[in-house]
User: What shape does this take?
Amino acid sequence: MSQASRSAEPAAGTPDLVTMMVAISERKDRAAFSQLFEHFAPRVKAYLMRHGANNETAEELAQETLLRVWRKAHLFDPAVAAPSTWIFRIARNLRIDRIRRERRPEFDPEDPALVREADPAADHQIQTNQEGARVRAAIDLLPPDQKKAIMLSFFEDKPHSEIADELGLPLGTVKSRIRLAFARVRQTLGDER
Amino acid sequence: MNARHHPTDDLLLEYGAGNTNEAQSLLIATHLAFCPRCRGIVEKAETLGGALIDATPSAAMSADALQGVLDRLDEPDDAIAFGDATSAPLVAGTDTSIPRPLRDYLAHGSAESVSWRRVAPGIHRHTLAMNAGDSASSAYLLKLAPETVVPHHGHHGEEMTLVLEGGFTDGGKHFIRGDVELADPAVDHQPVIHADGPCLALIVTDAPLRFSGLIPRLLQPILDR
Ligand SMILES: [Zn+2]
Assistant: This one.
């Protein structure tokens, strides 16, 4: 497990989202929740609008996302996932449920059938305190065409073939840009595979 | 033992981004229950998703949005969405060798209690009902007797097979519990079920199978049904 590159600090003035989440999780801290809301609700709303929700629906689902964050806060573990990762999952699942109207099958971490990693630490290799900042830094360093391709794959509800049409590029080119961008991010997160 | 054959990294990223359809997601999520390696990759995709949301230009919320949510914080939590991974109590007869979420698609949580239809000698099929009726892909279980040779077939689209029990050999490779075989649209393949027991597999297709040869062509309408 490579942990050597774990040095990036959050930019000065960046609210400490982990501290907020922990305050919500441990003490049901409403002031911390308000701060978290101010930070994430407009971003989640933008995410949902990129996926085709109109202003009203996006507003409503962004509120719903943050409400779920509050209700599930007791499940938040800063050693397992960054707040942004956690909120992304909730927003993504709500989008699939309410905008796409599909089910989102997921594995159950408590499932007796779950095959666990032989080395339990490896199941959660990501130390999360500053991973958000490190991944953002890695995204900023991507070549613009890779950055655009990876943005589109997360922010447009479209298959790669349609993204390729939109960019006027061969499908293979789009796929390889997305692949390169993701490889770079995985490297940042200490993936040696 | 951990799985040795995995979905592509591309597909794991798409699943993490939330772009796979229900049938694909079902197969991937079931594989994830078997595979810490792929769980790690999906987790990284989700971390990327979180960072992208964090970095994206925001859309202004209405002035009273925060107050509206603060007023609702003490409301009882009514809805538990599908996929929330809340551990429901296991009903009697549940077969815990089949991981969630696949188990949730089976009546009584067991492959034994669903209705099987014989589609060929040694081959039984059970189609899984997807919630999204208009989905371009379909998912079904196959139960295959030991040493069954599945007819030669090619594909119009993508096909993925996840082994749940037993195993098969195809193109010199062995696939056992937890493994995913990705069919190459360009290549005919002919899986042979291992002799040591029946094989249970989850199959997800983008498009109907295309069999070559006369007998398989007679099979085609049955398998497509
Ligand atoms: Zn895997």
Notes: Residues 30-50 of chain A form the longest helix (21 residues). Chain A has two domains: 1-117, 121-193.
